[in-house]
UniProtKB/TrEMBL annotation:
HD domain ranges (all copies): 65-173
Signal peptide per UniProt: none
Pfam family membership, one: HD
Protein name: HD domain-containing protein
Transmembrane segments: none
Length: 263
């Protein structure tokens, strides 16, 4: 079930700056509480995961660096709290999968394929049971946008899968998503925009993953980012995606106005 009962919600009525500060404080404390619960199941594994992320993702551009992994972890634990996931063992699965989900990202491998060897070795070294290891690997290898492009869907995703996937997708949209999109495009020498290069329709998994076909950064909004709001699987993820999606729509609209000289 993806609609578990929330653990608790802070009541912060109104739209004043004080109310927003109280809401932010509630959110911070809530995430801190859930982090403690996850770490309690295996604190050594969480610390090792953070070390692996820092080591393996160092030197990457800022679109897929260690900071991205840490944000996704925090988002995932926050979503887990909203979705009512409270078991330390279940939260550990969410936290570890979120932390190491991009360690073997195909975009940063030579053969354009996911490399799960580092993740699998880490999971064994920290002493996770076989079932836990398999669940984390299944989340990581199945959560990518490329899998839904190819219709290779997890028909009945677990709550843990949905939470980690939604967290990763939330970090791909909104203000952070805009920054990451142009950061990655810049790292690949992609043009900001070229009116002659149209967004691709009906992308196959192979075309989406191709490192050969040059695209513009602005086209990435049309090919992927604008689609993510409607691909969220948890109610908490859907709620958060609305605001981030609207931010991107406004940004892209303003981008075209300025590009054309109308603004």
């Amino acid at each position: 079930m993806l609609h578990a009962r929330p653990l608790f919600l802070c009541q912060c009525p109104g739209s004043s700056s004080t109310a927003r500060l109280v809401a932010a404080s509630c959110s911070f404390l809530h995430t801190a509480h859930i982090k403690m619960a996850a770490a309690a199941a295996n604190p050594a594994a969480v610390r090792r995961a953070e070390e692996v992320v820092e080591r393996e993702m160092s030197g990457r551009d800022a679109s897929h660096d260690a900071a991205h992994a840490l944000r996704v972890r925090d988002l995932a634990l926050s979503l887990a709290a909203e979705q009512g996931l409270s078991s330390p063992d279940r939260l550990l699965i969410v936290e570890l999968a979120a932390l190491v989900h991009d360690v073997g990202d195909y975009k940063y491998t030579k053969d354009n394929a996911e490399d799960m060897s580092i993740v699998e070795r880490f999971l064994e070294e920290v002493g996770l049971e076989e079932g836990q290891r398999e669940e984390i690997v299944a989340i990581i290898t199945g959560m990518g946008f490329k899998n839904e492009v190819s219709k290779n869907l997890n028909a009945e995703p677990t709550l843990e899968f949905a939470i980690v996937q939604d967290a990763d997708r939330l970090d791909a949209i909104g203000a952070i998503g805009v920054a990451r999109c142009f950061t990655y495009g810049g790292s690949k020498n992609s043009a900001l925009h070229d009116p002659k290069v149209l967004p691709r329709d009906n992308l196959s998994k192979e075309k989406y993953m191709s490192k050969e076909e040059k695209q513009t950064s602005i086209n990435h909004f049309h090919e992927k980012l604008f689609k993510l709001k409607d691909m969220m699987k948890t109610e908490a993820g859907k709620r958060r995606a609305e605001k981030r999606h609207k931010f991107m729509e406004n940004f892209v609209s303003e981008f075209y106005e300025e590009w054309s000289g109308r603004a």
